[in-house]
Amino acid sequence: MKSSGSSWIIGILLVPLLVGGCGVVDAFGGSDTVRVYSGRHYDLEEAFGEYAAETGVDVEFLYGGDAELRERLRTEGEDTLADVFMTVDAANLQVAADQDLLQPMDSDVVAGLPENIVHGEQLWVGLSKRVRTIMYNPDRVDPSELSTYEDLADPKWQGRLCMRHSNNVYTQSLVASLIYHHGYEGAREIVKGWVANDTQILSNDIVILETIAAGGCDVGITNHYYLARLLADDPEFPVQPFWANQEGRGVHVNISGAGVTAAADNPDLAVDLIEWLATDGQESFVYGNHEYPVNPDVEPPPVVREWGTFKEDTLNAAEFASLNADAIRLMNEAGYD
Amino acid sequence: MALTVAPIAIVGLGVFSPSIDTWRQLWEGPLPDMLWTTAALLVLVGGGTIALGTGLAWLTTAYEFPGRRTFTWGLMLPLAMPAYILGFVFLALFDYAGPVQTAMRSVFGSNVWFPDVTSVGGVAIVMCLSLYPYVYILARSAMREQTPATYEAARMLGDSRRAALLRVVLPMARPSLAAGSALVMMETLTDFATVQYFNVETVSVGIYQVWRGMFDRETAVELAALVLLIALVVIGVERLLRGPARFHQRGAPRDIERVALFGWRKVLAVGACWAVLGAAILIPIAQLLYWLFTSPAVVTDMSRGLEYLSNSLGLALAAAIGAIFFALLAAGGARFSGRSFVRRAAHLVTVGYAVPGPVVAIGVLVMIGWVVSGAASNPAGLVLASLTGLVYAYVVRFMALAYGSVDASLEKITPSTVDAAHTLGANPSRVMRQVYFPMAGAGAAAGAVLVAIDVLKELPIVLLIRPFGFTTASVWVWELASESRWAAAAIPALLIVVTAMIPIAFYLRRERRSRGSAVALETRLTTAGRL
């Protein structure tokens, strides 16, 4: 039953695949190609195109979620085609490092970058910085009222806060950093304080900013570049950033970063691409999304430049990444959605 | 058959070594809430789609009002609107900063009350609107095929229309309604994208939380087994509701005698149809078009869009053909052997429909790993493996739809036909080719339509398995939506909706041409719903 009549059907089955697949297969030119699994997809094509033009090395990339791509990397093992694993937060890079999916870069360029954004053995490196800070509506909040993430647990903020869902990795990283600084119990009290203030939990940063602008809440916590993006479209957008914890450890900074996969076919090309992104390619890599460069020699993008400088929490991203699972458990316990 | 169960089994084996600690932690933490939320959502969406689907079906079957003929097929179109697209449009319109609440504030002042849209209720409305067509299609078919004679008898015996509806039509349609709502609940259960927009934490969301945030794949898989268990409960309840009753159709399907509506009843009927169509498909499309024309960055690369679309179409086609092929093998084989345990086993092939996409995807990734280990030196081989794997995963996931369709049409093949063929000297493979394949053709076409639509809309599997450089329209929506670039996501979203309407239109045309002779899509859905 299986033998007869099945071959032609399998033939038909494969036709669309071959047609669809041809374009894909053609892309694999030769060894002068470096392949990237990327959880980041902010107009990366531009930066990669520039790199190809400068070096003659093509960049192939596959977008996906950070965790999904890491899982795929793990499942593919030695067979993976990916040379570079790129994510939009530190936690998944660190987990990839823990699962032996990355190899050391041994690069002088990487060694020259700020310590807090580089893995101790150069298994991964941050390539752009995203600041998760307090945003407020200047019509309803005097910035002198604001101070720290911890202070938002104070009852004076009752009914005035908007924050992001606990499923979001940015929320998880921020809470993980609180665990690092205050211990598990201390961090839980803070998060309980947020919950006690009837904080509205919204599903993404843009909605938080739009709700603040519309008067639905006074203060929120979001990544800085979402505000930059809204301001780029509408310079009058009525929300201002406030750099949190400037009197203490500094504002919470997460990274978007990359590492070379353990099974890379072209580890040298991979390191070269990452070095380029950290130096000559910084501008095209970070500017499109209004992020802060990791390279001190590169100016921040125009929209965020006028926000001035700030003190940042220099906690190594690996530290809060390792506390990510605890952060989720903590938010569950504290009743944070 | 083993092929379609394998990926789920691979992943599912983890269930036998449960991580007790994590489970205890989950049980003391979010799990009870998740279970309640899941149950509440299932009840709301199940009940809502039954009410909406059955109501509209009765309205368009038993009454005459302006536009009825158009509504009859128009009300199937929301099948083309993925819940996750409807969800983000709904949120953009109704959240605090959206136009509706802003307008209300400007009229009634800033303290005007508005229900919380990011809630179980909000997501239930969205899911009802995008899933009710399953029930609508089935209910309509039941009303046309099974009840006219009995209904007319009841009327003649003096029942009012309402009494006849309650005492005859609905009880007789019960199996179809149960099957339709089982399909709906299966889709609701395995959804994880729409619910996340609405901050609603179902068990499927829990799988994601555990897997992505706590980096614990093993526990995630065990949670997936829990989802499967809930699905089995749903199926069990469906069986109970269906009861032992089976109502066979006699003669060709026909409409019962329609009553013309006048006055406010007419206005109400027309209004109800427009309201559902408007909310489920017209307003969302209008909003997407608005974004399309007002967002500056949108109209950049249509050529890329066409490439993604052709990828989507190729994939949908391949998956539809693949699913139908295996459905024929499984359903035909089961019938062929004539043993009941084989038939029961054949039903197992449909289990993928009750398993969340990412679980199927990981299983298939593991299998691809086995098949191509060592192929890294030959990227083209891996690409092909990965595309084949993608189709394979879809076959596993959506087999229930194809199997249901094919099985229903094979049911029409009488043993005497097969015996005759044997008597005339045909060997088994010849009987397969010359009796079963032609007879199953009609069922295969409708099954293919259903699978193709679902593949066009599907996201987690294609995201996880696709090879380098292979992007589909749904992946494109995700890339933009995950950055909150709703406006830019309008193009691919529209592409998906319009494309998914093509198979529906194709089916409707075919249906109209061969009215009565082919097995109706509805019957096939019924069987799919029974898994």
Radius of gyration of chain B: 24 Å
Low-confidence stretches of chain A: 1-29
Most extensive interface: pair and counts?
A-B, 72 and 77 residues
| Overall 3D form of chain B | globular
What topology, given as strand order, has the largest sheet of chain B? 1-2
Instruction: Provide the succession of SSEs of chain B.
Output: HHHEHHHHHHHHHEHHHHHHHHHHH
Quaternary class: heterodimer
Number of helices of chain B: 23
General description of the model:
The complex is a heterodimer of chains A (337) and B (531). Chain A contains 13 helices and 11 strands. Chain A has 337 residues and is α/β, with parallel strands linked by helices. In chain A, α6 runs parallel beside α13. Chain B is an all-alpha fold. Chain B is built from 23 helices and 2 strands. A two-stranded parallel sheet of chain B has the order 1-2. In chain B, α5 crosses α7 and α7 crosses α23. Chain B starts with a helix and ends with a helix. Chains A and B meet through α1, β2, α3, α7 and α13 of A and α11, α14, α16, α17 and α19 of B.
Give the SSE map.
The complex is a heterodimer of chains A (337) and B (531).
Chain A (H helix, E strand, L loop, with lengths): L5 H21 L6 E6 L5 H12 L2 E6 L2 H11 L7 E4 L2 H9 L3 E2 L4 H4 L13 E12 L24 E4 L4 H28 L3 E3 L2 H10 L4 E5 H10 L6 E3 L9 E10 L5 H12 L3 H5 L5 E2 L8 H4 L11 H6 L1 H11 L3
Parallel strand pairs in A: 1-2, 1-3, 6-7, 6-8
Antiparallel strand pairs in A: 3-10, 4-10, 5-8, 5-9, 5-10, 5-11
Helix pairs in contact in A: 6-13
Chain B lengths: L1 H11 L7 H9 L2 H32 E2 L3 H7 L8 H12 L4 H10 L11 H26 L2 H9 L4 H30 L2 H5 L5 H11 L3 H26 L16 E2 L2 H32 L7 H36 L2 H8 L9 H16 L6 H32 L4 H9 L4 H30 L2 H6 L7 H9 L8 H24 L7 H9 L2
Parallel strand pairs in B: 1-2
Quick description:
By secondary structure, chain A is an alpha/beta fold.
